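Task: sequence design from structure.
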């Protein structure tokens, strides 16, 4: 059995370095300097994005995973910085967009795929409630299965198919996109305190919450999550959580 533990290092927002065995996945690269991107439109404030700079950490990785192509998960700076031949896993609906941008090793995950000794499963997500979720387009989560199993839920709220993912895979660690991202109308489109608490009740896994304090429409803060939930890891940018 491998002696390597699963680890997640938060870079910023939903950008993470996920390491299993000896393989490191760069997830949802957002590389723009602080304030270079416009505010998310139709949201409660007009602060420019990202709200914070990149942390001073080494970005070393073997493969890229993009849960969906919203600009706070894959941006122009990342497109320019990534090597064209880096293995890049994504949801099937977005393959052509990556190919059109010049990436030469794009690997859509219909159901599951493999990389080294790791099996990658694509899982469903719901990016909001009702009609708004439909308008937000497809999003995915991913489960990385090796000696230990890690579930990245992606941009989703808590709903029955997320619960079923826990039942199916029984992960050792789960990473949730918090922030309770909000437009001026409608319900939040990512997890808030109630969603996070539901996950905590549903699993014995280590629960990590990211996707906060970096984009203008993400209104839920780290301190609120820490004070209103129990047994939840809320890393700062650059911080690593290890099993």
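Answer:
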């Amino acid at each position: 059995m491998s002696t390597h533990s699963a680890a997640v290092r938060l870079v910023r927002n939903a950008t993470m370095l996920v390491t299993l065995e000896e393989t490191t996945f760069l997830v949802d690269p957002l590389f723009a300097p602080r304030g270079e991107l416009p505010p998310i439109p139709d949201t409660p404030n007009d602060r420019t994005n990202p709200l914070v700079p990149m942390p001073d950490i080494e970005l070393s990785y073997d493969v890229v995973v993009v849960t969906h192509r919203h600009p706070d998960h894959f941006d122009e700076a990342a497109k320019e910085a990534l090597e064209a031949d880096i293995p890049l896993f994504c949801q099937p609906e977005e393959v052509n967009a990556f190919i059109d941008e010049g990436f030469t090793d794009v690997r859509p995950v219909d159901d599951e795929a493999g990389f080294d000794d790791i099996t990658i499963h694509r899982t469903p997500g719901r990016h909001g409630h009702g009609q708004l979720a439909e308008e937000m387009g497809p999003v995915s989560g991913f489960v990385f299965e090796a000696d230990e199993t890690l579930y990245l839920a992606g941009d989703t709220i808590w709903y029955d198919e997320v619960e079923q993912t826990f039942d199916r895979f029984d992960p050792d660690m789960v990473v949730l996109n918090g922030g309770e991202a909000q437009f001026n109308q409608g319900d939040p489109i990512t997890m808030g305190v109630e969603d996070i608490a539901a996950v905590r009740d549903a699993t014995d896994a280590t629960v990590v919450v990211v996707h906060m304090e970096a984009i203008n429409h993400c209104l839920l803060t780290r301190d609120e999550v820490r004070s209103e939930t129990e047994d939840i890891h809320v890393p700062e940018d650059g911080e690593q959580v290890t099993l």
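Helices lie at 76-81, 95-100, 130-135, 160-169, 193-202, 222-228.
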